[in-house]
Amino acid sequence: MKLYYSPGACSLSPHIALLEAGLPYELVKVDIRAKKLENGEDYLKLNPKGQVPALGLDSGEIVTEGPVIVQMIADQASSKALAPAHGSSERYKLLEWLNFLTSEVHKSFGPMFAPALNDEAKAFFRDRVMGKLKYIDSQFAGRDYLMGKQFTVADGYLFTMLTWGERMKFDLSAMPNLAAYKARVEARPQVQEALKKEGLAQAK
């Protein structure tokens, strides 16, 4: 498999999932602004959406959208328990988290990366994200991870966005559960490996 990624972007989530799953993969770096691969090829010919992540399967098929990609990865390594079994109530809870993260948190982060947006508009989205994070913080009572004691692909996704918040100087001091959670996920060997492979400052 090939993971098309941009360092520190939402493609970090499936990168973590691949390492946690222990699946073989190749990293292919994408210049998101130029829509080019490192070898100069046009990324849009491969993925007309022009975004990362994209997962190239051995069959030649390209799969896009992070929440779908991470479930596909989890299902290929079911023994790792990165996602509950299909049809179980726990699987639907995982889907609930993935959908909340992508529609409520991820999409609210997006505008803050837009150079054309003024500071007032960015402050609006910052407050919106902080509200969502406060909700998530409240859900961690008695839990190590989003689904309880077991790390799942949803955790890689949330962690990725928490690294964005760290870069943007988000103050999580009023959210001790979430701050402890970020440190717990970051300490995982596979997460450290993903950070190092992408050349990110958080890697230790």
TrEMBL record:
Residues 87-204 form the GST C-terminal domain. Signal peptide: none annotated. Its EC number is 2.5.1.18. The keyword tRNA-binding does not apply. Residues 1-81 form the GST N-terminal domain. It comes from the Bacteria. GO terms for molecular function: glutathione transferase activity. SUPFAM superfamilies: GST C-terminal domain-like, Thioredoxin-like. Keywords: Transferase. The keyword Glycoprotein does not apply. NCBIfam families: PRK10542.1. This is Glutathione S-transferase.
